[in-house]
Description:
The complex is a heterodimer of chains A (145) and B (82).
Chain A: E1 9-14, H1 18-28, E2 35-40, H2 43-51, E3 62-66, H3 74-81, E4 92-96, H4 101-109, E5 113-116, H5 121-125, H6 127-132, H7 137-142
Parallel strand pairs in A: 1-2, 1-3, 3-4, 4-5
Helix pairs in contact in A: 2-3
Chain B: H1 3-8, H2 11-21, E1 23-30, E2 33-40, E3 43-51, E4 55-62, H3 69-72, H4 77-81
Antiparallel strand pairs in B: 1-2, 2-3, 3-4
Amino acid sequence: MTERFEKEFIVVYADDDPDDIELVTEAFEQYAFNVKLKIFSDGLTTLSYLRNLSVVDDSPCLIILDINMPGVNGKDCLKQIRQINQLNEIPVVLFTASVSDRDKEFAKLYNAGFINKPLSASQMEMITSKFIEHCNSDIRKLITK
Amino acid sequence: MSSEDFLQLTYDEQVDLLTTDGIYIGKRGLRPQVSVLYQLDTFYVEILYKKYRLHISSIRCSTSTAILDPYFELLDVPLVID
């Protein structure tokens, strides 16, 4: 019997809006074969999870941060992620309903992507591929639908 | 752009414009019947969903600040002041 081992990639998603969490979770279902979405509802628990990753834990292949979260918001979270040695090269995307050049500049400054929250089904269809595009190229090839 | 010009656009064009140029003000309602409000130039645009982010029921525009009221009612004022 031959068993095919598929690596599981972890995508961390932090958002305080349960509706958006549900939609993004549904959108990622097409990648359920080898992508596991780890969801957090605020920046603080996200940071706590990331800081407590040990060397034997797989680092996430992508971190998606809503900007407007209570307490530690997505931008503060990004700043702190970039100070964690193990994570300073991990792709991060700021995901927001706001369109702000300042936020886009902030994302650029901290080597992060910037994606607007979709407003329609056609935009929603493209959202997971937009996220996956931010993963490094080796991982992108391995992520399958 | 005026609200009249905006209303001449197709839904897809309106949504694309809001995504790139709209200033998000807030969200109200319970899924799936959720509405979101944006400011675009000098007017406000409210998207009413049949299914949140997936199926738009209608898009309405207003230059009146009265459209903000139901969104402001949802704001946690002490939290905003903090």
